[in-house]
Amino acid sequence: MLEVGVKTDNKGHVVVDKYQNTTNPSILCIGDAAGKFLLTPVAIAAGRRLSHRLFNNESSNYLPYENIATVVFSHPLVGTVGLTEDEAIERYGRDQIMLYKSKFNPMYHAVTKHKEPCVMKLVCAGPEEK
């Protein structure tokens, strides 16, 4: 990669901007090689945005990675989407952030003896609390 002027990070992923441009203006990179959300649907979505930029004259079309849901299939399950609390504070300022937390038993366990609580944290920003 270095021979063609493409920079990689310390994990070997190709360094790209939000439009999949590398440090070599004639080389673009999407998917796992770019090291962002190593998921097939994400690579497909990034590829579609790239094709729209290249062939549909949509120069500002890119994939906003902050809205991609992820899950860890562990016990208990962990799922996330959007900005973390720290990222939201950095972007919008602490006074613009509202936090909501809840703990409940999911419907999945409603009729079983096994009651596994679910913990939810919702980070909202701005007057619309989006």
Automatic annotation (TrEMBL):
BP terms from Gene Ontology: cell redox homeostasis; cellular response to oxidative stress; glutathione metabolic process
InterPro entries (alphabetical): FAD/NAD-bd_sf (IPR036188), FAD/NAD-linked_Rdtase_dimer_sf (IPR016156), GSHR/TRXR-like (IPR046952), Pyr_nucl-diS_OxRdtase_dimer (IPR004099)
Organism superkingdom: Eukaryota
Keyword field: Disulfide bond, Oxidoreductase, Redox-active center
Domain Pyridine nucleotide-disulphide oxidoreductase dimerisation: 68-129
Cofactor(s), by name: FAD
An example Gene Ontology CC term for this record: cytosol
GO terms for MF: flavin adenine dinucleotide binding; glutathione-disulfide reductase (NADPH) activity
Pfam families: Pyr_redox_dim
Family the UniProt entry places it in: Belongs to the class-I pyridine nucleotide-disulfide oxidoreductase family.
Protein's UniProt name: Pyridine nucleotide-disulfide oxidoreductase, dimerization domain protein
Source organism of this protein record: Teladorsagia circumcincta (Brown stomach worm)
